């Protein structure tokens, strides 16, 4: 249990530092500072999709439904609005 606590604290610290770099990079218009945040987000998305696939194969119906809903919400959070994708 203590290992999970330390791992969670480490992940939250990495996410906090990457968010600070995102804010600094956006404010100073330095693109290199945006990369750590995008990496953390993409890794989180990959873990979420992996958990979804594992739950679909090994889980029960309600577990799969909850994971599908959470992954859809996570993808929707980071997607730009539809009208900005095509420059409308």
Entry keywords:
88 residues; mainly alpha; 4 helices; transmembrane helix; membrane
Explain how this protein is built.
With 88 residues, the protein is mainly alpha-helical. The protein has one domain (2-80). The chain contains 4 helices and no strands. The protein has helices spanning 2-28, 35-58, 61-78, 82-85. It is flat, with a radius of gyration of 16 Å. It starts with a helix and ends with a helix. The relative contact order is 0.07.
Number of domains: 1
Order of helices and strands: HHHH
> Mean pLDDT across all residues, rounded?
77
Number of β-strand runs: 0
Q: What share of the residues does DSSP label as strand, in percent?
A: under 5%
Distance between the termini: 50 Å
**What's the tally of helices?**
4
Radius of gyration over all CA atoms, rounded: 16 Å
Low-confidence runs of at least 5 consecutive residues: none
Summarize the biggest pleated sheet. none
Range of helix content:
over 70%
Assign the structural class, choosing from mainly alpha, mainly beta, alpha/beta, alpha+beta, or little secondary structure.
mainly alpha
Q: Topology of this protein?
A:
Elements: H1 2-28, H2 35-58, H3 61-78, H4 82-85
Helix pairs in contact: 1-2, 2-3
Short note summarizing the structure:
The chain is mostly helical.
């Amino acid at each position: 249990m203590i290992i999970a606590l330390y791992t969670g604290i480490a992940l939250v610290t990495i996410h906090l530092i990457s968010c600070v770099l995102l804010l600094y990079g956006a404010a100073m218009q330095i693109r290199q500072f945006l990369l750590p945040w995008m990496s953390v987000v993409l890794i989180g998305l990959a873990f979420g999709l992996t958990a979804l696939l594992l739950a679909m194969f090994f889980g029960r119906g309600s577990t799969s439904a909850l994971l599908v809903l959470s992954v859809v919400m996570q993808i929707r959070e980071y997607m730009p609005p539809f009208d900005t994708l095509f420059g409308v």
